[in-house]
TrEMBL record:
GO molecular function: ATP binding; ATP hydrolysis activity
Pfam family, one: oligo_HPY
Species for this entry: Thalassovita gelatinovora (Thalassobius gelatinovorus)
Cell compartment(s), UniProt: Cell inner membrane
Its membrane topology: Peripheral membrane protein
NCBIfam families for this protein: oligo_HPY
Gene, per the UniProt record: oppD
Regions annotated as coiled coil: none
Protein's name according to its UniProt entry: Stage 0 sporulation protein KD
GO terms, biological process: peptide transport; transmembrane transport
């Protein structure tokens, strides 16, 4: 298992992926949804960077933006020196699956139920490589072995519904890594799975990250899930990163009031006395259709003052970032 200390925090020129001031809006008939409002981060080679936050804060939109699948209206995404945000559709389609790949929460929605696992895996490999059918089949079987699936030849002939949820997610991971991408984006990869299988899939992603030298962007609503595998954590609220820190530092010394609230609501056997209800955060996130001026967390924040009606300053130092008036 890696720890935050093992990986150097990225300098701009060493980052495998750089995201700067990303802005994404979904224009609906009656309103515009401000899903991502200026997200900036760097991803170091072989790093696991987690993005956490509650439902609707824009995590999946960031993930999909990295694959060129959202209406980006501002900012820049650079992958391995290539400016993704300036690419046309055809060029982006070549990058997707080849240099950057994604796995989703529910593999059944990404796998075609009427095609065998082998057919889908072989097609994905052939789409991005010059391999012939036989070589692609051999590579597919090898990939299934690498994601811990025994009897690969039989697995290739099976249909997705014949596999368990955990096995389907392994197939998706095999497919995502089959072209050895520089970055793997995992959007809630374990949310639909049983707890024991969740741990296995997270361990597998971590092991393959090491073996393949892939950097991982791990999206989750559950900060407890990333405690052991992420090198750094970004906490998102209302379309922005409000705090970013190495994992151990974030857990030991959470600075943004929202991060503190999130951590207080993670179950811990050493903290909650028997019979006491878990602390929960009061209130709910603002509508992404109409974000308030200033800090979007201020209505729920016990530290809020008049200052919070204007945009909070960003404080950077010691390898971490916080966006809050408390650290002016
Ligand atoms: N295709 C879309 N069209 C319109 N609005 C969208 C679309 N996708 C997401 N949204 C809206 O954008 C905002 C951010 O959604 P997003 O799915 O990125 O958040 P999330 O943090 O990943 O939440 P969840 O975990 O529930 O998916 C939400 O208000 C959501 O309703």
């Amino acid at each position: 298992m890696n720890t935050a200390a093992e990986i150097e925090l990225p300098e701009n020129d060493t980052a495998v992926l750089t995201v700067r001031d990303l802005v994404v809006r979904y224009d609906m008939d009656e309103a515009s949804i401000h899903a991502v409002n200026g997200v900036t981060f760097d991803l170091a080679p072989r790093e696991t960077y987690a993005i956490v936050g509650e439902s609707g804060c824009g995590k999946s939109t960031v993930a999909l933006s990295l694959l060129g699948l959202t209406p980006i209206v501002g900012g820049e995404i650079v992958l391995d020196s290539a400016r993704l945000t300036e690419m046309g559709r055809a060029e982006m389609a070549r990058v997707r699956g080849h240099k950057i790949a994604m796995i989703f929460q529910e593999p059944m929605t990404s796998l075609n139920p009427v095609l065998t696992v082998g057919y889908q895996l072989i097609e994905a490999i052939r789409l991005h490589t010059s391999m012939g059918k036989r070589a692609a089949r051999e590579h597919a079987a090898k990939m299934l072995g690498r994601v811990g699936m025994s009897d690969a030849e039989r697995r290739l002939r099976q249909y997705p519904h014949e596999l368990s949820g955990g096995m389907r997610q392994r197939v998706m991971i095999a497919m995502a890594l089959s072209c050895n991408p520089a970055v793997l984006v995992a959007d809630e990869p374990t949310t639909a799975l049983d707890v024991t299988v969740q741990a296995q899939i997270l361990a597998l992603i971590d092991q393959l990250r090491e073996e393949f030298g892939t950097a991982v962007v791990l999206i989750t609503h559950d900060i407890g899930v990333v405690a052991e595998t992420a090198n750094r954590i970004a906490v998102m609220y209302a379309g922005r990163i409000v705090e970013e820190a190495p994992t151990a530092a974030l857990f030991a010394d959470p600075r943004h009031p929202y991060t503190r609230g999130l951590l207080a609501s993670v179950p811990r056997v050493d903290r909650v006395p028997d019979g006491q209800p878990m602390p929960t955060m009061e209130g709910s996130a603002p509508s992404m259709r109409q974000l308030p001026e200033g800090c979007p967390f201020r209505a729920r924040c016990s530290h809020s003052t008049e200052k919070c009606e204007t945009d909070p300053p960003v404080r950077v130092g010691e390898g971490r970032m916080v966006r809050c008036w408390l650290y002016e």
